[in-house]
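Hey team,

Filing this mostly as a record. A colleague (T.K.) asked me to run one chain through the structure pipeline before their review meeting, and I want the input and output archived in the tracker in case anyone asks later how it was produced. No errors, nothing strange. Just documentation.

Input sequence:
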Amino acid sequence: MSVDQAAKRDIPDATVARLPGYLRALGQLTARDVLSVSSEELAHSAGVSSAKLRKDLSHLGSYGVRGVGYDVAHLTYQISRALGLTHDWPVVIVGMGTLGRALASYGGFATKGFKVVALLDRDRALAGERLDELTIQPMDALTAVVTPGEACIGVIATPAASARDVADLLSAAGVTSILNFAATAIRVPEGVHMRKVDLSTELQILAFHEQQRSGAVSDDLLEEIG
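Output structure:
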């Protein structure tokens, strides 16, 4: 099977969602100079069952070697290729408030296959301000930094009230992948893929689990007292 054929495998969305976790675990193994890993060890590090991990990796055509496990370097390459991380993806961040600036300054993008190429904000008073190696540009510069037909990922880090307009501008400019940090749901045109990162929702889910844990602890104490 050629590299192109392997890269075009149909991989279930649930498996795709777990691949970054496997890649992170493999990175930790690489940092410790570990050359091979069993499915049980890798699954434990990634927080999944070994059966689920083996099934996920089978979609990549990787089955490991009985008694040896998976070659860490090769599996890292396979997952990186499947995720499209064997080359850098250009990223445009819109919204230079506290969150946008934090994202722009995040050094981890460069090591994960992403390169921030432009910073934009509708506040023209910010235009020309330097942030690390980039200069903040006004929104009307968007069409100049995005080349239609070429891959580019747009990141929305604006307040919720502005997010819909920004998504429309990104879509119109030819951006087909958008990561939305704004606390609002946005509809995008067909052919545009959007992922939403809602920090408040994640905190609410954690609060639920904390409440469940606290309730369980309280019940245990009542039983001991009783």
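Quick notes for T.K.: The chain is about 50% helix and 15% strand. Confidence is low (pLDDT under 50) at residues 1-8.
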